[in-house]
Design goal:
It is a single chain. Helices cover about 30% and strands about 25% of the residues. It has helices spanning about 10-15, 30-45, 75-80, 100-105, 120-130, 155-165, 175-180, 205-210, 210-220, 225-235, 325-345, 435-445, 450-455, and strands at about 5, 50-55, 65-70, 90-95, 110, 135-140, 170-175, 195-200, 260-265, 270, 275-280, 285-290, 295, 350-360, 365-375, 380-385, 390, 400-405, 410-415, 420-425. The two termini are about 40 Å apart. The relative contact order is 0.13.
Length: about 450
C-alpha cells in the first residue's frame, strides 16, 4: 500500500491548517458486506478458525469496546468477518486517511495520532458508543508487534474503560503474526490462523474495579509470545525466505556485541563483523552455525557461556537470563542492553533523515532533509534550510510510532503533536528504528517516577 506524496516547502506546510476531527459517520451495511467479501479469500487461504467464549452475555445490538492484539492486516480481515452483522467503528492512525478520507470515514474509521495524548479521539469513541450505538474496535498496542510479543499498553486504558462504560470484548489471534510478520515485509506464509473472542468485562465489572485492577487484567490479556507458541504448538513455517528482514528485529550480535552489522538472507541471519551465523528453523528456533567448523551448535542459551562480554557492554552475570534460540528473548536482551546504555549515559543517536509531514488528509508532504537527535533529553529534529526546529521531551510518550517500510518508502520513526506529525527516514539504512523505539520506552520509564505511575493507575 502506498500513500499520496507531495513535495512542498516546509514553511508552506507549517502554515497549512491542521486536521480537525469530524463527527464519525454511521456505518452502512454495504461497507461491512464489502469488507467481509474482500476478506473471504485471504481467510480461506489461511484456514481461518475461531471460537467464542462467553459472547452470549453481549446483547445483539449492545455497543461494546473490542480490544485486539495487533500482528498484521489479517487482524482487520478477521474482525470484519466475525462482526459483519454488527455496526462498528475502527480506530485508525491519521496517516491511513491521507488521500482517501471519504473512503475511510465510510468504512467507519476514526482517526488517531499514535502515542500522542488524543482527546478528540476519546470524544469520537464516546460519540460512537453513546450516540450512534456503535461498537468500537481498538488496537491498544497501537502498532504491529516487532518481535512477536506484546507491545506496552498506556496506563490510560483503564481510565478509558471507566469513561466508556460499555462491555469489553477481547480478541486474541494465533498464527496471524507468523503468517505475515512486519519484519518479513508482510509476505504471506502458509500458516493457519485462529482467533479467540472472549467476553472480558461487563459494565458492572468495570464499575467495581479500580483503574489499576483493570490495567492488570488487560496486561494479562496482552501477555503473549508468538515464538514460544509456535514451538510449543509444533507450527512449521517452511518458506525459504522466512528469516529475511529479521535483522530489523535482531540488530545486535550477541557474540561480538556490534550493531548495524547483522544481515539476513533466505532462512539465515548472520553478523557481518564476527561471522556468527544462525538458521531460523521451520519451528521458529534460531540454531547457531559455527562459522569455523561448519558444525551445528545449539543457539547461545541459558548458562552456556558465562564468560562472554558483549562488545563494550559486559553482561556475563546476566547471560543465563536469555535463551537466544528465541527471537523474543534475543529482542529482550537488546532492550536490556539499551536500558544499560541509557543508565550509563552512553545512548545517543544523531543521524541525517528525510522528512515527511502529515498535517491534513490531502497528502503527506515531502519537505526535505534534516537531522534527528535522540538522547536523554528526548528528540530534536532540525532541518529544511533552518525553518524546522522541533523538540520532544523524553516524558512525552510511553512509546514511539516506528515502522518498517512505511507505505513502501522506508523504515521510519514518527514524532510530533496533535497538529503535525514528522515522519523521519534515516538516510543510513543500517540505523535500526526498533532500537529507537526501545530507547524511547526505557527513557520514559526513567523520566516518570514509579510513585507517579502507581498513583495514576490506582485511580
Amino acid at each position: 500500500m502506498k500513500i499520496k506524496l507531495v513535495q512542498k516547502n516546509y514553511k508552506e506546510v507549517a502554515q497549512t491548517p491542521a486536521y480537525k476531527n469530524k463527527t464519525p459517520r454511521k456505518q452502512r451495511v454495504f461497507w461491512r458486506f464489502l469488507m467481509k467479501t474482500l476478506s473471504a479469500k485471504d481467510l480461506k487461504d489461511c484456514n481461518f478458525t475461531y471460537e467464542f467464549d462467553g459472547m452470549e452475555k453481549l446483547g445483539k445490538d449492545e455497543p461494546c469496546l473490542f480490544l485486539m492484539n495487533h500482528s498484521s492486516f489479517t487482524d482487520l480481515e478477521i474482525f470484519s468477518t466475525l462482526f459483519s452483522d454488527r455496526q462498528y467503528h475502527i480506530v485508525m492512525t491519521l496517516d491511513g486517511f491521507v488521500g482517501k478520507e471519504w473512503l475511510m470515514r465510510s468504512l467507519g474509521c476514526i482517526p488517531a495520532r499514535k502515542f500522542i495524548t488524543d482527546m478528540p479521539l476519546v470524544k469520537d469513541i464516546v460519540y460512537c458508543l453513546k450516540d450512534l450505538g456503535s461498537s468500537v474496535l481498538m488496537y491498544p498496542e497501537a502498532s504491529y508487534s516487532f518481535d512477536g510479543t506484546a507491545t506496552a499498553l498506556p496506563s490510560s486504558v483503564g481510565k478509558c474503560l471507566k469513561l466508556f462504560n460499555v462491555p469489553v470484548v477481547m480478541i486474541t489471534t494465533e498464527g496471524a503474526f507468523h503468517r505475515d510478520p512486519l519484519y518479513n515485509g508482510l509476505r504471506k506464509r502458509d500458516v493457519a490462523v485462529k482467533a479467540t473472542v472472549k467476553y472480558l468485562l461487563s459494565v458492572d465489572d468495570i464499575k467495581s474495579k479500580s483503574v489499576k485492577e483493570l490495567n492488570e487484567i488487560l496486561k494479562k490479556e496482552f501477555s503473549f509470545d508468538h515464538w514460544r507458541w509456535q514451538r510449543e504448538s509444533g507450527i512449521k513455517v517452511t518458506e525459504p525466505f522466512r528469516a529475511e528482514g529479521l535483522e530489523r528485529v535482531l540488530y545486535k550480535c550477541p557474540v561480538c556485541g556490534k550493531e548495524r552489522v547483522m544481515r539476513s538472507s533466505g532462512f539465515e541471519i548472520a553478523c557481518g563483523s564476527c561471522g556468527a551465523t544462525w538458521e531460523l528453523e521451520e519451528d521458529g528456533a534460531l540454531v547457531r552455525k559455527d562459522a569455523e567448523t561448519g558444525e551445528d551448535t545449539a543457539s547461545v542459551s541459558t548458562g552456556e557461556r558465562e564468560d562472554v562480554a558483549y562488545g563494550d557492554l559486559a553482561v556475563a552475570d546476566k547471560y543465563d537470563a536469555y535463551d537466544f534460540s528465541y527471537v523474543s528473548d534475543w529482542y529482550r536482551w537488546e532492550r536490556d542492553m539499551v536500558k544499560k546504555e541509557i543508565a550509563e549515559g552512553k545512548y545517543y543517536l544523531d543521524i541525517p533523515v528525510d522528512i515527511v509531514v502529515v498535517k491534513d488528509t490531502k497528502a503527506a508532504y515531502q519537505v526535505g532533509e534534516g537531522r534527528l537527535v535522540h538522547s536523554l533529553n528526548g528528540f530534536e529534529l532540525t532541518g529544511c534550510g533552518g525553518e524546522l526546529e522541533y523538540h520532544q521531551s523524553a516524558k512525552n510518550s510511553y512509546s514511539l510510532y516506528a515502522d518498517y517500510f512505511w507505505y513502501e518508502i522506508g523504515d521510519m520513526v514518527s514524532i510530533g503533536t496533535m497538529d503535525i506529525q514528522y515522519y523521519c527516514f534515516p538516510k543510513d539504512k543500517s540505523v535500526n528504528v526498533a532500537k529507537v523505539r526501545l530507547a524511547t520506552e526505557e527513557m520514559y520509564k526513567l523520566s516518570i517516577p514509579e510513585r507517579l505511575r502507581a498513583s495514576e493507575e490506582a485511580m
